[in-house]
Write a structure and sequence with these properties.
The chain has 175 residues and is mainly alpha-helical. The chain has one domain: Orthogonal Bundle (Arp2/3 complex 21 kDa subunit ARPC3), CATH 1.10.1760.20. 78% of the residues lie in helices and 0% in strands.
Length: 175
């Protein structure tokens, strides 16, 4: 676990994951209140909760980050239904894993991690949509990948500047 002292208790890990899950839920709720992105494909969002899952993946590892993504998807299931849950779960889990792998490769900076996470999220959601609705939605792939670059870059920049504040939260939990 990057940045953590060796004697972090299980309770501290659970508390940190709980706080990060609450933050991911709050960012997701905030995002749902924002107007749709202009000229975007249907349902394209900024992906603010990716800020949290990426941070948790880097600071605590893949399993806690996946737990945050799954908790967020569970909330989506309760508030928006089964199809939204499937889309959230597929996108959240796949993007978390891809961001973690990209970070471990040390080949990407903050913007590259944001783009890889956004592209993975959108590809997983498109895959689910194709399974549910049929193959015609594959035509959305170029637009979805373009918006992945735009939204992923924005998220990467936000993470770059938000990282010190998020690390202070982690430090306060560990003291």
């Amino acid at each position: 676990m990057t940045g953590y002292r060796k004697s972090v208790s299980a309770a501290e890990k659970v508390a940190f994951c709980g706080i990060m899950s609450a933050l991911a839920l709050a960012l997701s709720a905030l995002e749902s209140m924002l107007p749709p992105m202009p000229y975007s494909a249907a349902g394209v969002k900024l992906g603010l909760s990716n800020i949290v899952t990426r941070f948790v993946a880097v600071e605590m590892g893949i399993l806690p980050a996946l737990a945050v993504a799954v908790i967020k998807s569970g909330f989506v299931a309760l508030t928006r239904g089964l199809v939204a849950f499937l889309m959230s779960f597929a996108g959240g889990v796949f993007s978390t894993f891809v961001m973690w792998m990209a970070w471990r490769s040390r080949a990407f900076g903050a913007v590259g991690l944001g783009i890889s996470g956004a592209a993975a999220h959108n590809l997983a959601q498109l895959f689910c949509a194709v399974l549910i609705s049929g193959g015609a939605l594959v035509n959305l792939l170029p637009a979805i990948l373009l918006f992945s670059v735009l939204t992923g870059s924005a998220i990467g920049i936000v993470v770059y500047f938000a990282l010190p504040a998020l690390q202070r939260v982690r430090t306060h939990i560990n003291t």
